[in-house]
Amino acid sequence: MIAPELHPPVRLLMGPGPSDTHPRVLQALAKGTVGHLDPFYLETMNGLQDMLRQVFRTQNPMTMAISGTGSAGMEATVVNLIEPGDAMVVCVNGVFGGRMVDVAERAGAKVTKVEKPWGHVFTPEDLAPALASKPKVVGIVMAETSTGAHQPIEAISKAVHEAGALLLVDAVTALGGVPLEVDAWNIDAIYSGTQKCLSCPPGLSPVSFSPRAMEVVMSRKTKVQSWYLDVSMLANYWGQNRVYHHTGPINMTYGLYEALRLILEEGLENCFARHKKNHEALRAGLAAIGIRYSTQEGHILPQLNAVHIPEGVDDAKVRSTLLTRFGIEIGAGLGAFKGKVWRIGLMGYGSRQANVLLFLSALEQVLAEQDYLFQHGSSVAAANDTYV
Amino acid sequence: MIAPELHPPVRLLMGPGPSDTHPRVLQALAKGTVGHLDPFYLETMNGLQDMLRQVFRTQNPMTMAISGTGSAGMEATVVNLIEPGDAMVVCVNGVFGGRMVDVAERAGAKVTKVEKPWGHVFTPEDLAPALASKPKVVGIVMAETSTGAHQPIEAISKAVHEAGALLLVDAVTALGGVPLEVDAWNIDAIYSGTQKCLSCPPGLSPVSFSPRAMEVVMSRKTKVQSWYLDVSMLANYWGQNRVYHHTGPINMTYGLYEALRLILEEGLENCFARHKKNHEALRAGLAAIGIRYSTQEGHILPQLNAVHIPEGVDDAKVRSTLLTRFGIEIGAGLGAFKGKVWRIGLMGYGSRQANVLLFLSALEQVLAEQDYLFQHGSSVAAANDTYV
Fold it and tell me: Which Pfam families does the entry link to (chains A, B) (predicted)?
């Protein structure tokens, strides 16, 4: 039996990712496949690396895309830096910090967890006791997709390096949505995903390793446990030698290449400002109808808005009505936030005035059907005010 | 600096893969991204799994696509079945058997290598001494992409199971090009790639685990070393529970879905016959101009033709002229075959009469420029004869 023709419904992806793919990226995906050692493809890899360095704001030679999703990037950074028995500190304030603990333990790390309540961020003081034990690596999530928390990195980095450790940063949802400075902040290893603020489908994980991190990788006593993610071999394919490792995901690479062109055409600062503006409008709109954020004040990500589901409102029904009637996807809560939180994404190409206004209008309609009390006023009017 | 617009040259991919992507697959890649838990996407996954079972000829519930290339599939099958200290036998007669040894050792396996010369295949007798030591897993490559050798699986499988071991098969280049029977041949774990005979770009790895293999996975004493490839968790996402694991590579999944539709529309037997027919034509053409195969007679893959580079001919110049003048990519030799062998792929959509005839015509022109002696006659005429 042959499955039916593929006719995806038209969606507005306003959840925690994937976000809407930019039309130019969709077109890039459909361009003709070439060989993974074709001179054109090698040039494409060069261009991609060069643009990725600009977006990461780094000079790191070892900047490239892992052939897997963001979680593969997490695993790649961890397994290359960690050897069995190494001490690693992982900061956990949501699902993705928790995932990093699991990944690190599977790599043989002795993990010390530092925890904060979901939705909150870490200060250098929070890490001090764990840093006193002189870990090899400290892992932290810059944009916790499960809570919408925006972790400041610079001060943490200083404390981590004073303790002689390497800093590993999860930037899956961060990259392209908020300012991020790999070199200025002295980040040793970082990974992201294509399906958040880069407006590209999921499937690749941009990563970067500092020269100091690469020294650690190159002087390992044991082989990296993953052949597929071994960055010493990947460096030979993405570096000047171009030694075949695995077959690069050609068409997805086209997609990421075009996505990086788009963000550089707009300019990083303009892109961050756009994310901020649309977030402010959404926030004003939600506030007008009494919907509050779940994230620590002052540390709310513009691209991922985690808000309390109002009391008496049917979580699943709101989400399914938004999806079926308007084609709008928003995210459910994960883990500790399950059933308590909605996650509204304004990421990359999806961070647009039109999306903010449509979403608020649709949400008002759906909430009205559930006899929600609009005590304050119109969300759309409030959002519009911020654009004036 | 923004890298230039993406204009891939038009290529005819007649190397060891990636092969030419079918136009319908390219179109599928460009369809609108939906969420990884969207009801439509879950249906797409169901359809993909159902079609993949037909192509693998299996009833295995645990049949799905790993979010990485074929090498990630290799790693996924190995790391799920192997716990540190487990004995594994790996059959090595080319690059990919060698790669499996490396992957298995990194997973903590005690590996026994069984070797045959490059281009040759294994008999059950070749494995007997290694099987006597009662390994847990035996790994073998069905279609050795580095040598064009077509490994018979059925008799090997019988010997492996009589020894109480699990059979792990590399079908990266095999799937869709030659008959393959996961259930009838009692294969316990198998992986493939999208970029060979499935006419899809690289980026996903179809895999299947038998119920017996899944029992072994589910009764492990240690966690799978890779979080990303842990099939017990992947089973919860691809199975009925649909528990979020990592974000599925939506658009690549569309591509594989359409590729599977194409192969089932044609019919597997017709597809195999087409591969065989075009191989015979190519072979007759090459024979007519004195070019011989590098692979053991009787075990030549129709989809991957590894042939000796004629003496006095400049390997690199022939390949680069084919590429620049005709847009035809063929593969260089790898490892022991470097500089000695060309690898000519007739895979999936690329296995067409037109490609065979164009390639032979182009090759004749390029060889003539190198003063090659055409002792026997015209390759094109000989190829045409086989189509009559």
Answer: Aminotran_5 (PF00266)
pLDDT in tens, B183-192: 999 999 999 9
Nearest residue in A to B329, CA atom: A35
Spans of all domains in chain A: 22-265, 267-387
Q: How far is A249 from chain B (nearest CA, A)?
A: 5
Identify the CATH homologous superfamily for domain B267-387.
Aspartate Aminotransferase, domain 1 (3.90.1150.10)
Do the chains contact at A1 and B50, CB–CB below 8 Å?
yes
Dihedral sign (CA A318, A320, A324, A327):
positive
Architecture category of domain B22-265 in CATH: 3-Layer(aba) Sandwich (3.40)
DSSP run (H or E) holding B260: helix B250-266
Q: What is the pLDDT along chain B (388 residues), one digit of tens a residue?
A: 999 999 999 999 999 999 999 999 999 999 999 999 999 999 999 999 999 999 999 999 999 999 999 999 999 999 999 999 999 999 999 999 999 999 999 999 999 999 999 999 999 999 999 999 999 999 999 999 999 999 999 999 999 999 999 999 999 999 999 999 999 999 999 999 999 999 999 999 999 999 999 999 999 999 999 999 999 999 999 988 888 999 999 999 999 999 999 999 999 999 999 999 999 999 999 999 999 999 999 999 999 999 999 999 999 999 999 999 999 999 999 999 999 999 999 999 999 999 999 999 999 999 999 999 887 789 999 999 999 8
**A64: Cα separation from own chain's centroid:** 16
User: Across the interface, do A1 and B224 touch by the CB < 8 Å criterion?
Assistant: no
- Asked if B202 and A4 come within 8 Å (Cβ–Cβ), the reply is no
CA distance B22 to A325: 35
| Residues of chain A found within 8 Å of residue B195, distances taken between Cβ atoms | 33, 247, 250
Residues flagged as binding site of A for substrate: 343
**SS3 label, residue B381:** helix
Asked if the Cβ–Cβ distance from B261 to A3 is below 8 Å, we say yes
Alpha-carbon gap: A132 to the closest alpha carbon of chain B (Å) = 28
Q: Give burial (CB, 10 Å; 0-12/13-18/19+) of A318.
A: buried
**Chain A residue with Cα closest to B44:** A6
Of the candidates B34, B225, B228, which has its C-beta nearest A71's C-beta?
B228
Helix (H) or strand (E) run with residue B325 in it: helix B315-326
Q: Residue A179 carries which side chain, given as an amino acid letter?
A: P
Instruction: Verify whether the Cβ–Cβ distance B201 to A252 is below 8 Å.
Output: yes
Determine which of A14, A34, A55, A170 to mutate to test the interface with B (most B C-beta atoms within 10 Å). A34
Structure tokens at B247: 């974000």
